[in-house]
Task: inverse folding
């Protein structure tokens, strides 16, 4: 019986019609036999097969097992049959059969109401599509295919790859810009902060790039948190915007504000968990003419009337630093009454600044120029991009877990000694990942816990000046208060 | 001993204008001008004049008194629907003389709420255009767009309600109304026939039903608290008790608004027999009920915030419990509740003036509580690593002028309406003297 | 047995398919309005002419609210921005 089914389950072959005319009602019929054995259809199966083909293991064996796992779930075959049928093949292929059944099976021998019996009690009626998929996942997981059935990002190991987090509905393009920031390499010099201010002409205190020095009460260690916008794939700020001014750019996932549409309600600022937004409370300190606008003399709407080719040429010829390739006003500091934040420098990515600036951001350039190279910006979907290459190298640097155990017990004193925690120990995290924002910044280094506190850094903000000779300000409110301080307003 | 209410009573504001009218108009006009000056200043220099700033490294708070006033005015606007529902849907006829006043309060208060949205934005010049052109997309995801939608609905439904009920009154009182507004009366009574009365009566009943579901449950118990409640990043807000909590505050403010309005009107126009002590006493008891519910929901929030809350929730609860403004709001509410209960046992404690004192107290408490809720919610975000957190905020003069200005503008609105059409329904006097002898369907 | 089934239910992604605002506004918030308007046309006593007048009120007042509001914002734009 299973042999018959194999022949027609592998693809949506012509024999499915004949099968469905027979009287048997198997789970396969219920799920729509013509679509193949898997509830998600033959297309899904083809994908699975391709992925299996890419592995060093036998693809056909995997598909057969997955198929019979479905039948197992439906109660058409027993756990015992499933286990026995594939035991030899699995041992052949993988040298060992580590499926959970192997152990369960031994435990349950001579004990009919054990785990196995319970599992097989499930009747086909109890099984929803979703449950079925989960259990198929269970079956497939036994041969190391679990990942195929689960696209749950939260369970994913952040270190494994930044490219794996690409499942986003809003996204059409292939690119997904993001950063790997190695906090261990940061020394708190704040050059990235100044680089950003110089690039974007932001007001004093509007530190789109912000660096915090922090410590935890349990340690004396000085840690850093480099905080640009997280350019979330599931950005709450874009979700709540009442006018679609805050949006995710389709082409490359940049989270941007259209300064010509924004009504300044500041809901994005309220919704953002990271506090990366800085409102243009008054007239911008740096006039538009000083922003390297280019000299094309066209307004945003005039730019948008051009064909994309003409527009891109215009923007690139003039080095426009305000409009992106769509002709939308999204780069540099915003107009009065609109929201601003780190943009990932869209006019650089669109080539307005010249080809050599594509794939760079001002803060990274500043960091590199200091010889720190803590910030690695690039396309996370590209395996060869700078952040992914950096991540690969970081992983290679990891100490072998075996070596880590050395010295854990001080034999002479017979007490626990602290494990060595060399610089090469890789700890990676995304900020507030549990809120579900799917941030595109991956941090390497220490993650601040709830009790962490910002402390005075090695370089105080007010010691620095930007290229326009303005003092760098840490707390923006000190600046915005100048308007409401009537004593000072008279000056 | 009681006087019989008559048409003459409800026409009094339209026929007589005392010196006090002009005094009130003058004071309210000055109040409104103060705000106009403040707003012009803001338009010139941007929101920098408000004392608001960026949360996070900025050390400020980005939403403040404007949004607090917005919530407060929408809350007061609920007076209209409570009273209309009591009369129209529950048949509590004794509140009929207050019903139209309350509906007008709804229109006035909602207008002020809308104005606060405008004043709050950094780019009022593109507010309408930007919202309208993206509406079909943003309605699916932006709680702020839901707010705009439901407030518009509430406004339009209430105004329709008012317009439909005015047809009956104006067509009958037409000869006694001032000639100045003839075009207005003609538009309102366009195509009026006596045959429509039972039909309009039924249409109005359905409208009242729609508004009673929409306004309390979906507006103040819905989209307004959801502006805050749906933000997982702000532990002080992310709490599903906010819907009911906002609603009890709205209902308390609404009843307070109606009490103050009734008290002033009956004193000015000698309406003691229409807006009787009984009506005011009844409203005070309702106030007591809503304040009780408000305090009960506060208790819910406090106990889950202090017992074994996550650190971030515990922090914001602690900040709330440590703030004098919070204890002002709670203290005033507890005191008023105790006095309302006491006057139920010993009626001699109660007086109309005391009811007004209660109302002013509750309105101050609700405004204080709402602004504090807003500000502290933003001051204690989940991601609290910044040294500049909690930021600092104190309402600036420009923001306070918006409070003065909106109260003044609602006053002006009433002063104008008093001279245009009767603010007490003709039905309210007819049910006593049967002047026009119309058989009523509902009551 | 029952517990196992509950344990296997996986969470629904509410943002996939119909976003919350879509059903919230059009299938919840507007229901009272649909009901009232339907009752105007279908209920007794009633006539279609009066019901239509009611609808004209609703639409007219919406416009009376938003059109002047729009003009005001345009004026603010011309003068201040």
Result:
């Amino acid at each position: 019986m299973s042999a018959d089914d194999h022949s027609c389950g592998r693809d949506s072959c012509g024999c499915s019609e004949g099968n469905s005319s027979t009287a048997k009602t198997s789970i396969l019929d219920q799920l729509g036999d013509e679509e193949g054995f898997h509830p998600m259809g033959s297309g899904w199966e083809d994908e699975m097969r391709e992925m299996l083909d890419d592995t060093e293991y036998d693809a056909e064996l995997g598909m057969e097992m997955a198929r019979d796992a479905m039948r197992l779930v439906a109660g058409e075959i027993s756990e015992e049959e499933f286990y026995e049928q594939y035991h030899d093949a699995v041992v052949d292929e993988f040298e060992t059969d580590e499926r959970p059944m192997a152990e369960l099976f031994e435990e349950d021998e001579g004990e009919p109401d054990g785990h196995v019996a319970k599992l097989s009690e499930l009747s086909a009626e109890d099984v929803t599509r979703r449950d079925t998929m989960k259990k198929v996942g269970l079956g497939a997981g036994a041969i190391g295919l679990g990942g195929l059935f689960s696209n749950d990002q939260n369970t994913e190991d952040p270190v494994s790859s930044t490219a794996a987090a690409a499942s986003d509905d809003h996204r059409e393009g292939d690119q997904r810009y993001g950063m790997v920031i190695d906090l261990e390499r940061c020394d708190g010099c704040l050059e990235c902060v100044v680089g950003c201010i110089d690039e974007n002409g932001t007001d004093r205190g509007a530190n789109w790039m912000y660096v915090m020095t922090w410590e935890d009460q349990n340690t004396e260690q000085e840690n850093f948190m480099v905080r640009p916008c997280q350019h979330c794939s599931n950005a709450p700020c874009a979700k709540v915007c009442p006018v679609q001014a805050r949006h995710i750019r389709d082409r490359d996932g940049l989270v941007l504000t259209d300064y010509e549409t924004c009504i300044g309600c500041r809901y994005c600022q309220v919704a953002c968990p990271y506090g990366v937004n800085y409102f243009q409370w008054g007239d911008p300190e740096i006039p538009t003419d000083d922003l390297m606008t280019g000299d094309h003399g066209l307004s945003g709407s005039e730019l948008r009337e051009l064909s994309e080719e003409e527009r891109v040429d215009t923007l690139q010829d003039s080095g426009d630093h305000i409009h992106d390739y769509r002709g939308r006003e999204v780069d540099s500091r915003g107009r009065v009454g609109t929201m601003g934040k780190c943009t990932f420098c869209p006019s650089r990515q669109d080539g307005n600044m010249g080809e050599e600036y594509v794939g760079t951001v001002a803060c990274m350039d500043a960091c590199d120029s200091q010889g720190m190279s803590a910030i690695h910006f690039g396309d996370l979907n590209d395996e060869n991009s700078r952040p992914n290459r950096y991540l690969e190298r970081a992983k290679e640097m990891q100490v072998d877990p075996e070596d880590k155990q050395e010295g854990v017990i001080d034999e002479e004193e017979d007490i626990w000694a602290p494990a060595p925690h060399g610089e090469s120990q890789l700890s990676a995290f995304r900020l507030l990942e549990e809120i579900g924002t799917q941030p595109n910044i991956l941090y390497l280094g220490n993650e601040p816990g709830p009790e962490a506190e910002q402390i005075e850094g090695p370089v105080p903000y007010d010691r620095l000046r930007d290229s326009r000779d303005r003092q760098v300000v840490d707390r923006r409110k000190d600046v915005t208060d100048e308007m409401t301080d009537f004593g000072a307003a008279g000056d | 001993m009681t006087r019989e209410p008559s048409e003459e009573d409800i026409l009094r504001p339209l026929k007589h204008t005392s010196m006090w009218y002009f005094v009130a108009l003058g004071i309210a006009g000055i109040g409104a001008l103060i705000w106009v000056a403040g707003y012009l200043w803001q338009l010139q220099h941007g929101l920098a004049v408000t004392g608001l700033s960026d949360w996070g490294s900025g050390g400020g708070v980005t939403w403040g008194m404007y949004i607090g006033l917005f919530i407060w005015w929408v809350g007061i606007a609920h007076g209209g629907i409570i009273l209309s529902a009591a009369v129209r849907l529950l048949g509590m006829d004794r509140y009929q003389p207050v019903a139209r006043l309350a509906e007008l309060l709804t229109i006035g208060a909602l207008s002020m709420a809308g104005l606060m949205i405008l004043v709050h934005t950094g780019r009022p010049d593109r507010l309408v255009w930007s919202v309208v052109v993206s509406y079909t997309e943003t309605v699916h995801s932006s709680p702020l767009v839901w707010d705009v939608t439901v407030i518009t609905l509430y406004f339009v439904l209430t105004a329709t309600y008012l317009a439909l009920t005015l047809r009956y009154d104006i067509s009958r009182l037409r000869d006694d109304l001032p000639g100045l507004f003839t075009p207005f009366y003609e538009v309102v009574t366009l195509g009026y026939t006596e045959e429509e009365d039972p039909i309009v009566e039924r249409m109005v009943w359905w409208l009242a039903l729609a508004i009673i579901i929409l306004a309390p449950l979906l507006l103040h118990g819905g989209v307004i608290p959801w502006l805050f409640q749906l933000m997982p990043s702000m532990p002080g807000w992310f709490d599903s008790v906010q819907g009911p909590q906002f609603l009890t505050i709205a209902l308390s403010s609404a009843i307070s608004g109606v009490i103050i309005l009734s008290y002033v009107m009956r004193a000015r126009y000698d309406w003691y027999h229409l807006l009787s002590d009984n009506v005011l006493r009844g409203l005070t008891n309702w106030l007591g009920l809503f304040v009780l519910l408000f305090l009960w929901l506060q208790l819910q929030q406090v106990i889950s915030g202090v017992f074994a809350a996550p650190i971030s929730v515990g922090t914001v609860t602690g900040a709330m419990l440590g703030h004098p403004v919070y204890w002002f709001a709670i203290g005033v509410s507890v005191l008023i509740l105790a006095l309302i209960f006491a006057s139920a046992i010993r009626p001699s404690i109660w007086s109309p003036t005391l009811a007004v004192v209660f109302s002013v107290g509750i309105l101050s408490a609700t405004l204080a509580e709402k602004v504090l809720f807003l500000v502290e919610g933003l001051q204690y975000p989940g991601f609290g690593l910044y040294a500049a957190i909690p930021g600092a905020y104190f309402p600036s003069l420009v923001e306070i002028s918006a409070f003065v200005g909106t109260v003044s503008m609602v006053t002006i609105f009433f002063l104008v309406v008093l001279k245009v059409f009767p603010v007490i329904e003709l039905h309210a006097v007819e049910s006593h003297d049967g002047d026009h002898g119309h058989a009523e369907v509902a009551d | 047995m029952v517990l196992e089934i509950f344990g296997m239910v996986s969470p629904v992604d509410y943002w996939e398919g119909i976003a919350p605002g879509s059903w919230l506004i059009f299938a919840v918030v507007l229901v009272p309005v649909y009901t009232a308007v339907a009752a105007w046309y279908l209920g007794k006593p009633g006539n279609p002419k009066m019901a239509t007048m009611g609808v004209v009120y609703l639409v007219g007042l919406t416009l009376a609210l938003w059109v002047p509001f729009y003009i005001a914002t345009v004026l603010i734009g011309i003068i201040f921005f």
